[in-house]
User: Which sequence fits this backbone?
């Protein structure tokens, strides 16, 4: 056994070590608590700033969305009274504006957690853009329309797309689904608005509602709307292809006094080329417009024929590929250019031209 003095010294050293350890632990705890408090203060300040920024930028997006909602309501009320061209233009403009709003909302949200306030905010405008795009697709499919060509792209007025046609039932289902998506977006926006108001910074978003009467998006109401569209006289399908110009190469010479009426005299040439501009004055695109060419010798013999096919957008025109026929000097031919009219085209005016071509003798 240790002497009494040694035991006392050992106890004092043990107590000293325990006190030192306790002091170190206390100091560490104080540092941790202080750090956590500081982090909490900084985090709270960050959350306040982030929420206020989201509210500020989000208010701009919401205001633009409210304008689009008003335009959409107006379109819904008068769709059946519009022409096909105006209806398509209005639908395209709404799809463009809501798509831009969705992009702005995504930028305002930053890179958020999808379940967080910022993520749900961005989803509102993405859903609205999707709903409007789906609505346009349903109307286009019902009426046989398609979005207009965008200026500066490779698509031209003559390259009309073939629309994906929908039955009235299918269109009704898609329109109703678009309404459901808009209502979901409204509910999400209301929850985001309330959550942001309660959160740090107390950000304020304006009210934004697209569906003010849910009954208008029920199957029965949508069915009635679809019937109005299909029965609308201004939205009716009309076919009206015409020959706008028929140009000869070489061109006809100035007629002489002896030239028979309806005859064009061409300078001596081994070939004659015909270039046609076809115009679509109907209300629908003609993706497979056909024009037939025939050149028949007047003195007898077999005629030579050719066909050209092109797509012509409603209200547009297209220059067909040139057709070239062999000819002989001193002979006369009858040229016939005729549009193969699509089913349902009532007017035949301007669809056919017939002309005698006299090829002058060489000198």
Assistant:
């Amino acid at each position: 056994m240790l002497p009494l003095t040694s035991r006392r010294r050992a106890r004092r050293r043990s107590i000293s070590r325990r006190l030192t350890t306790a002091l170190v632990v206390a100091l560490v705890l104080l540092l941790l608590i202080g750090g956590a408090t500081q982090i909490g203060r900084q985090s709270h300040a960050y959350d306040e700033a982030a929420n206020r920024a989201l509210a500020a930028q989000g208010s701009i997006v919401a205001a633009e969305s409210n304008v689009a909602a008003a335009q959409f309501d107006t379109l819904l009320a008068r769709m059946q009274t519009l022409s096909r061209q105006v209806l398509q233009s209005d639908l395209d403009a709404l799809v463009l504006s809501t798509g831009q709003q969705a992009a702005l909302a995504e930028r305002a949200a930053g890179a958020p957690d999808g379940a967080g306030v910022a993520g749900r905010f961005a989803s509102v405008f993405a859903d609205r853009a999707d709903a409007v795009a789906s609505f346009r697709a349903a109307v286009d499919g019902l009426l046989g329309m398609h979005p207009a060509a965008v200026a500066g792209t490779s698509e031209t007025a003559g390259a009309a797309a073939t629309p994906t046609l929908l039955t009235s039932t299918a269109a009704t289902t898609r329109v109703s689904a678009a309404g459901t998506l808009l209502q979901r977006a409204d509910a999400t926006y209301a929850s985001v608005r309330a959550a942001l108001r309660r959160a740090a910074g107390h950000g304020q978003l304006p009210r934004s509602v697209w569906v003010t009467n849910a009954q208008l998006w029920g199957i029965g109401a949508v069915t009635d709307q679809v019937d109005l569209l299909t029965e609308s006289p201004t939205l009716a399908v009309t076919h009206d292809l015409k020959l706008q110009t028929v140009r000869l190469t070489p061109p006809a010479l100035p007629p002489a006094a002896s030239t028979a009426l309806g005859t064009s005299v061409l300078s001596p040439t081994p070939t004659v080329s015909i270039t046609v501009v076809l115009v679509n004055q109907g209300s629908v695109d003609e993706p497979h417009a056909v024009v037939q060419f025939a050149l028949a010798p007047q003195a007898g013999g077999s005629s030579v024929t050719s066909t050209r096919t092109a797509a012509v957008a409603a209200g547009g025109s297209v220059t067909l590929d040139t057709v070239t026929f062999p000819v002989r000097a001193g002979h006369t031919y009858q040229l016939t250019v005729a549009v193969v009219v699509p089913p349902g085209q009532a007017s035949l005016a301007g669809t056919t031209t017939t002309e005698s071509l006299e090829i002058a003798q060489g000198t």
Residues 153-160 have pLDDT under 50 and may be disordered. The longest strand covers residues 286-297.
